[in-house]
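Hi V.,

Quick status before I head out on leave. The structure for the redesign project is tokenized and pasted below; the design run finished overnight.
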């Protein structure tokens, strides 16, 4: 089958837009183990790019290199057309790349609003904030509610509820909302529907679509092929540390994707 590119069902836009995130010939080794072997990737504005592959294919290493958790041995990473050199995750976050990992990194004892602003707490205006460092709880709750509303998250009406009282899907929504609120350029989601039920998974997938509709590009790492084919515009397939192919749900079937992933078929 032909390897084509599709962004929101308009393939031609890929050729007229510059990628917001671009990786070229990334190489990462761990002793004699090759994690990445010359991997290239492009992420365009307003698209969902899924990354799939078997265990050990290099998915996690690729994401870690793109988000500052690992430093590639070779290759180039560009953000908005400019080269970047992330030495730690905070560097990527400061540049506008937010990552939601499987463990979510939420604080169960804090409420929804406090989790959205975790590590970025806003202070009260004037002397209370500058000298006494009083947190602007009311202001953060107001902004948190507005952010959730904008993302179309209707299952979290009360931002004062402790996260420990939320379901798995709702906790995922909090983590994704935090990434969307501060990830001004790119949001990376690592297995966002893992261990979720059918209803909660659907809510998370709708949230991914909402991010895309807002123009925020999303990198989605997932083992769930139906979920990938439901929301992804393009699918980057990793195999043995390399990019085996980049396909679309329109150009290839799930069976094709699995065959390419296992080496039984080429794109």
């Amino acid at each position: 089958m032909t390897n084509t590119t599709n962004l929101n069902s308009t393939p031609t836009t890929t050729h007229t837009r510059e990628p917001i995130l671009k990786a070229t010939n990334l190489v990462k080794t761990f002793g004699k183990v090759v994690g990445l072997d010359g991997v290239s990737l492009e992420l365009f504005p307003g698209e969902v790019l899924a990354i799939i592959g078997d265990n050990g294919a290099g998915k996690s290493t690729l994401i870690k290199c793109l988000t500052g958790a690992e430093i590639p041995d070779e290759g180039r990473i560009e953000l908005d057309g400019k080269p970047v050199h992330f030495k730690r995750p905070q560097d990527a976050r400061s540049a506008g790349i937010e990552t939601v990992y499987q463990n979510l990194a939420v604080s169960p004892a804090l409420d929804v609003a406090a989790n959205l602003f975790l590590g970025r707490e806003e202070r009260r205006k004037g002397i209370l904030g500058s000298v006494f460092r009083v947190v602007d709880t009311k202001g953060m709750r107001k902004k948190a509610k507005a952010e959730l509303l904008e993302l179309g998250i209707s299952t979290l009406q009360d931002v004062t509820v402790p996260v420990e009282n939320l379901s798995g899907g709702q906790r995922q929504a909090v983590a994704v909302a935090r990434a969307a609120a501060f990830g001004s350029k790119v949001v990376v989601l690592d297995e966002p529907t893992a261990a979720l039920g059918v209803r909660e998974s659907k809510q998370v997938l709708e949230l991914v679509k909402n991010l895309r509709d807002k123009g925020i590009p999303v990198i989605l790492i997932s083992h769930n092929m139906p979920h990938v084919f439901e929301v992804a515009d393009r699918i980057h397939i990793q195999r043995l540390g390399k990019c085996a192919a980049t396909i679309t749900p329109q150009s290839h079937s799930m069976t094709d994707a699995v065959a390419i992933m296992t080496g039984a078929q080429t794109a």
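Above is the designed sequence. The radius of gyration is 19 Å.

G. will cover questions while I'm gone.

Best,
W.
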